[in-house]
Design brief:
This protein has helices at 23-37, 45-58, 63-70, 75-82, 89-103. It is mainly alpha-helical. The chain has 2 domains: 1-43, no CATH class; 61-103, no CATH class.
Amino acid sequence: MELYEPAPGRVLISNTWKAVAKPSAFNSAWSKAVTKTGLPKGTRFHDLRHFYASALIAAGMNPKAVQHRMGHTSITETFDTYGHLFPDHEELGRGAIDLLLRSG
């Protein structure tokens, strides 16, 4: 993939003429990029979005901040999609109480 100046408006992927890239052209460029970077064959562009959300959650980012960064309209959407990646707060709570009782 080559870097070009942004297209007018809010177009994320443009061609050399600053027009919206056709899906076939993007898919071809994406396949080449996957191969060149050593990503697993079959990696989809959308997988980057899930990777980004996973990285934010693993870094301990607040769920509301993750919601905002992902552009979700509700926290329910964030938890329905990525809830399994957030720490088990019930387990953390039990551990905190256990630690408190043992130290007392």
